[in-house]
Amino acid sequence: MLVVTNTIRIKEGFGSKVAERFAGAKGVQTMPGFVRMEAWLGAGQEGEEELKICTVWENEEAFKNWTSSETFRESHRGAGDSKEYMLGASLNKYQMVVSHQA
Length: 102
Prior knowledge:
By secondary structure, the protein is of the alpha+beta class. The chain has helices spanning about 15-20, 60-65, 70-75, and strands at about 1-10, 35-45, 50-55, 85-95. The model has no long low-confidence stretch (mean pLDDT about 90).
């Protein structure tokens, strides 16, 4: 399993507004190899909030197919409208090595 986190730095007070963009299904859930997506909102550095978008994939190939798809491009259209409160983002990838469930 591959876990990808996109950490988005946002001006304080705008985190919920940015998180709303991820509430509606935008096509990622239809991609082969997609397992789930979660959005986590928390405090960042002073004056900032952090939104972590975490997606879980069966493998790296499934994630790459998503990022090169037309569905990916369509789901990211309009992201430039939030330049006034988006401060930056970083993408990280992890291999899942342990998982426990109830």
